[in-house]
From TrEMBL:
Organism: Crepidotus variabilis
Similarity-based family: In the N-terminal section; belongs to the NAD(P)-dependent epimerase/dehydratase family. In the C-terminal section; belongs to the aldose epimerase family.
Tree of life domain: Eukaryota
Function: Mutarotase converts alpha-aldose to the beta-anomer. It is active on D-glucose, L-arabinose, D-xylose, D-galactose, maltose and lactose.
Signal peptide feature range: none
Protein's recorded name: THO complex subunit 1 transcription elongation factor-domain-containing protein
Amino acid sequence: KGPKVDEGPNVLVTGGAGYIGSHVIYVLQKTRRYKVIALDNHHNSSSGCLDRVSELTKSELPADATEDEKLSAEIDVHKCDLTKPDQIRAVFEKYGKEGVWGVVHIAAYKAVGESTEIPLTYYANNVCATVSLLQVMDEFDCRRLVYSSSATVYGTPPVIPIPETTRLEAHSPYGKTKIMSETIIDDLCHADKRWRALSLRYFNPAGAHPSGMIGEDPRGRPGNLLPLLAHMAVGRVKDSTLKVFGDDYPTPDGTCVRDYLHVMDLASGHLLSLDALAPESFIFKEDATAYYKAYNLGKGQGVSVLQIVDAMRKATGFDFKHEVIGRRRGDVPDLTADPALAERDLGFKAPADLTTMCRDLWNWQQKNPMGYGEQLVNGVKGV
Ligand code: WQD
């Protein structure tokens, strides 16, 4: 499926230097079905990450790879603030009309708690930037979009596992920016049928590429559970007791349940989505009112906080302690996906199990105790 061309059409990935973005770029580069252009403002990412992606794809080229093939492992990276339309335009101008075949829009601020403290920054960066991006895409006749949405659009879902037909509600400005962006894209596709767009509602991505070359590298103390546990096990967070945010939820062990999927499986979902927007494998019915659909990208299996702690104890050998404290604002009891629609329409699969996710996360963290920051070269802080 998908365009079969030697030098794939140009696909622009916003947030390309981030955790999800770098794994998506790796998958796109590896299949060589698309030529990747990365945009990032490096607010929560480092450019070193994309050097690693190039290194990784180069290391997997056949021994007799041509100079061109080695060159194609390089990634065009543009530092770009998506809230500035002129900066987006400058990138598109570099590739001219019809130069960018499609866009994977991942760039966004994503901390639920932070979004309640600085909502304006979140609306500017997540919603206004999306509008600017869509406007510039339209100017350059680029009308294929894969949009990074989130299970957070379901608020407290009435049904578990969650189907895409569930009404959308958000409790935080972050969640509202995801619903607003989906709505904007949906309306655009209804107004202009030259647009083809998919929103991918991520559940909880986890793990890292099995090589340990790329992985999740949040700035400062991680807010999310898995990277926090990895930082504790590697000694980057001087604390061996996890604070569990409440164990009085209506769940099997009282702690929140989430649907963790391997970041490599999530990344593959983006390749399948781009392929689904290619003319020859069009997934929409010709008489559709709009060429727009939203899909859950999850495993369809719920795992509790305490089960995660246990899985990470096994993967790292680190003896995590935990202490139950009050609930965290904005948390919901259970976010488990019904992934049937993505499996049916896109051929999406998320086979990697929790043990594999924790093993790959730990492999990344052990090899990069300080993430992409200063590297310990033979135990010495190197470049
Ligand atoms: C998982 C569970 C916490 C830390 C977040 C964003 C969501 C999406 C994915 C972007 C929860 C519990 C956590 C800790 C804990 N991001 N926990 N102690 O909240 O499901 O989703 O990341 O799309 O928008 O909200 O992930 O890893 O923060 O929390 O008990 O120190 O772990 O309460 O139940 P979450 P998380």
